[in-house]
Design a protein that fits this description.
Order of helices and strands: HHHHHHHHHHH
CATH class of the largest domain: Mainly Alpha
Structural class: mainly alpha
Shape: elongated
């Protein structure tokens, strides 16, 4: 064997454990990502059908086929897991509103389109909608909980600010009355849409089917538009027939 063949530099240039270790690290990262997504999917389904108090970390771990410690390692605790789901729901909803605001049409048309996208969000992500529309069952005081809740609150305020901006743009364009308070109007519409879609979650006679929710929102669109739009920006179908 020559000196060149036995030199450290020569040996380090050959395929060896370093390359294998790097690949192993990549596989481990992908496995962690899959486990995390599986846990989120299992938890979202669990929280849809049971109260926060009744969902047990041990049951989630078993359903996701991971160790209980994995949940604590990824999310800190059950509160962290729940709030991570809420944050994901907020991000998904923001994407739907972004689609509404990127559509062709005037600011008023985009405001009205937001309601339709809110319904789509409910239909395509029912678990996320339920998490976003309900009151948070968490009142924990851990630093992790506070950090997540503050971040989620900031994201929701950012979404509302964007919606308020579209309403203000419609006011500035002369499509809505100049004495309309854009901030209050944004919160009214958010609350109205949320309330109608949330009727699908009820277990009594107030419950609406998905088709009924869509019809109710279309009816509400006519009512809201006829009240918000100034003369010249109402469609014939939006106007109330003369008695």
């Amino acid at each position: 064997m020559t000196a060149e063949q036995s030199s450290p530099a020569s040996r380090s240039s050959l395929p060896g454990p370093v390359a294998d270790g790097s690949d192993s690290g990549g596989r481990a990262a992908r496995r962690r990502a899959r486990n995390r997504e599986r846990l989120l999917a299992v938890a979202e389904e669990a929280f849809r059908h049971a109260s926060y108090r009744d969902v047990r970390v041990e049951d989630l771990a078993e359903a996701a086929d991971v160790a209980v410690g994995t949940i604590y390692g990824y999310f800190g605790n059950k509160e962290g897991l729940y709030l991570t789901l809420v944050e994901r729901a907020v991000t998904q909803f923001a994407g739907y509103l972004k689609q509404a605001f990127s559509e062709q049409g005037s600011p008023l048309e985009q405001v009205m389109a937001a309601g339709e996208h809110y319904l789509r969000f409910h239909l395509e992500h029912p678990g996320s909608f339920q998490l976003l529309s309900g009151q948070s069952p968490i009142d924990g005081t851990s630093p992790l909980t506070h950090e997540l809740r503050d971040r989620i609150g900031g994201q929701i305020e950012e979404i509302l600010a964007g919606f308020q901006g579209r309403i203000q743009a419609a006011i500035d364009a002369g499509e809505m009355p100049t004495d309309l308070d854009a901030r209050l109007a944004a919160r009214f519409l958010w609350g109205a849409w949320n309330g109608v879609v949330a009727l699908g979650l009820r277990g009594d006679l107030m419950r609406l089917s998905d088709d009924e929710i869509a019809a109710c929102l279309r009816q509400g669109r006519r009512i809201v538009r006829s009240g918000l739009a100034v003369a010249g920006h109402q469609r014939p179908s939006d106007k109330t027939p003369a008695s």
